[in-house]
Design a protein that fits this description.
heterodimer; A: mainly alpha; B: mainly alpha; 12 helices; 0% strand
Chain lengths: 276, 328
Amino acid sequence: MSRLRRFFRTPEAIAGALILALLAAMALAAPLLFPGDPQAIAGPALLPPFQDWSLPLGTDRLGRDVLAELFHGARTSLAVGLAAAAAALLIGSVVGTLAGFAGGLIDEVLMRITDAFQTVPSFLLALAFVSIVGPSLGVVVAAIALGAWTGPARVARAEVLSIRERDYVAGARVIGMHPLEIAFREVLPNALPPVLALSSVIVAAAILTEAALSFLGLGDPNRVTWGGMIAEGRTVLRTAPFLSIVPGVALVLTVLGVYLVGEGVVESTAVRRSLS
Amino acid sequence: MTRALRLLRRRVVGSVFVLLIVVVGSFLLLEAAPGDAVDAYIVSTGGDAGMIELLRHRWGLDQSELTRLANYLWALLHLDLGQSVTFSRPIRDIILERLPTTLILMGSATVLSFGLGSALGIYAGARPGSIRDRFLSIGSLALYAVPGFWLGLVLIVVFAVDLRWLPIGGIETIASGKTGLARAVDIGIHLVLPVSALGFIYLALYLRMMRAGMAEAWRQDFILAARARGLPRRRIVLAHVARNALLPLVTMLGLQSAQMLGGSVVIESVFAVPGLGRLAQEAVAGRDVPLLLGIILVSAVLVVVINLLVDVAYAVLDPRVGAGEASA
């Protein structure tokens, strides 16, 4: 059975893949379907959903098109989630490989730094970082990655510790490869699979953290974010609760999609392992 | 018991180093902020160049970075966190005022998520693959995907705005003059929604861990042995399967404490609960760098202490832990 077939065996994995595909389509189609500034005023303020078919989901407190904001918000959520997770996985696997391969004092120092990062609540760290450097998309990505790289670092280190004793590593030493070259060209690629298995959890956490940051007003002010939309809608929570509820539902579906796909991947590889 | 104490001693020494890294690291990070405490102060009060000069000198901001770090560490040794810019009060006093609220919030949310989560996990894990197991697994995954602050808003819409059962926010009825038990009940009622918003997210985590651990335990030989001995099913589930799946949850309890502290920042802001998290947001809004530094430090200490307690609990629960270092 091919790997893809195995992945699409459970209804959960299919549902997850469908959600993510829909989301990616939304993110890609946003500038085509809703050209122009999604933060521009499009109609009367606080128009309820399903009233005017040119504005299917109605408008917010300032008369902005909710559907357009939702589409553009998908772009921000996905971009930040994927970029922050990629950065966290990169930093984590480099730090973990260095610590595990070098051993001794370097290992000790790097792992104590990892401990320190795990001791500070990552959301508090992100909050402090964004408030100091100033909110922009890149800074938000960096702030989230700053609190998310420790998990991958620990997993990479543990994997490297077992890999570095293998014969092919000894072989690489014998032919005189530079230790750094061995670490990053021979050891790191083989330590990656368990690290990459963390990606779905990290992407999901990154999307949720980004939403929480924008909810507190620390997102990029020039971008539409779902967290920011929820915060906007909160001011009229009594009269127009749907303004907060709609972007929240989008968030839940997105994160759920990421989890479901992640579970599907893990399960399809676990079956292969038990069969071999 | 001495085994647990030995473990504790070793971990305390390690923790001091980690906390030192946290202090120096966050000090340097916050140093990089444009503008200093005097700028923030002058913005709110106004003043001329002479006043700025005087304040910089009085607050020691005209010294080099290294001197200030040394001064800060020296003050920390005396449990002095410095002066808040926005509140014009000692930071230690402000934090000590706010800390109990956050501890109550986190403690109750932990009891809720751990208790209900592991109970539902046992219910799901008692029959892996059954309909109720699948239902709970999917449900908990969906719950785990919910942002806490949004769940808080939804709870407010349903229970405070529509049904009017519970207050919309705050920690107690303002100027109600309640004392003693009546006040405790009042605070309890105010905490129902924030605790639920914070606790329900992590409930999913414990449920899933418990369920996964039990599914694993069912395949072990000692379960087969227990069945062969003809033990009642109820006893196998509770005393053998669930008990073996419980230990990793205790570890998770410590690991999640940092996450929960972060989560309470947003939850406290949604429900206007005057705790440490809301203080962090106020510090960010007021550009109060010393206060933010103090909050980060106190949270780190809190996380370290919780993890130490979890380690001791773990050593008490599992006789294998730390037994190898009898002579250490």
